[in-house]
Design a protein that fits this description.
The protein is α/β, with parallel strands linked by helices and 240 residues long. It contains 10 helices and 9 strands. The longest helix is centred in the last third of the chain and has 14 residues.
Length: 240
């Protein structure tokens, strides 16, 4: 059985994996979720958040036996962790996540998508250091197929997203390349175009790519199915 480390995306926190931890545990795995800097219960000031500090948070929670799951923007800090210390993890699994191209920031990757789905929903802070997502657009962007209680649960916990780490280029080398990878594409994603996810999924070999008929938040809409997909991918990934 595997040790899964769950890494959230923009404006979210460890709280978004609420349903996944018991679902993975029921399959015999261990599962942990972390807060990236300034998210959830982490006290870091938004002004102090960097891509490096997000990377280091991931690395501090990982072991050489850990499979790291990065959701959405979380694909960047987990990739940075793999680039810096490839032996600190067993594998990466991208969940409807951004996969870096060498030298590009996440913002640059988003701009390369064939469609821009989230731009109108983003509101930048007055100091220019962070952004939030308009509450009236959260349902359609993230949770349109999720249980009704998901939106109020999420809105009570969503937080500003620091911009600086998402504008920081990530350079990747053979370190990143040698870490085993899998990708899960959400086929009804309203945040990242699903055809763009399909393109990014080619970071993984064909047998380690999976689809889930879900919104951008399968951890809320289909936690049991998602846990089964993770379980299947774990069995196909190289053993420790």
């Amino acid at each position: 059985m595997a040790d899964f480390l769950l890494v959230h995306g923009s404006c979210h926190g460890a709280w978004c994996w609420r349903d996944m931890i018991p679902a993975l545990t029921a399959l015999g795995h261990t599962a942990r979720a972390i807060d990236l800097p300034s998210h959830g219960s982490d006290p870091t000031s938004i002004a102090d958040v960097t891509l490096d500090s997000c990377r280091d948070t991931v690395l501090s929670a990982s072991t050489p036996q850990t499979i790291i799951v990065g959701h959405s923007w979380g694909g960047y800090p987990v990739s940075a962790a793999a680039e810096t210390t490839p032996d600190a993890m067993r594998a990466l699994i991208y969940l409807c996540a951004y996969v870096p191209q060498d030298g590009l920031s996440m913002v640059e990757m988003r701009k390369r998508a064939p469609r821009q789905l989230i731009v109108d929903a983003v509101e930048k802070s007055t100091d220019g250091l962070s952004y939030t997502v308009r509450p009236d657009m959260v349902h359609d962007l993230f949770y349109h197929d999720c249980p009704p209680e998901t939106v109020p649960y999420a809105l009570a916990r969503m937080c500003p997203q620091p911009i600086a780490p998402q504008e920081t280029p990530l350079f990747v080398s053979d370190n990143f390349a040698r870490v085993p990878k899998a990708y899960i594409r959400a086929t009804d994603d309203h945040t990242i175009p699903t055809e763009y996810e399909e393109q990014m999924s080619h970071v993984a070999p064909k047998g380690l790519r999976a689809d889930i008929n879900s919104s951008h938040s399968p951890f809320f809409s289909h936690p049991r199915l998602l846990s089964e997909i993770l379980d299947d991918l774990e069995q196909k990934l190289p053993a420790v």
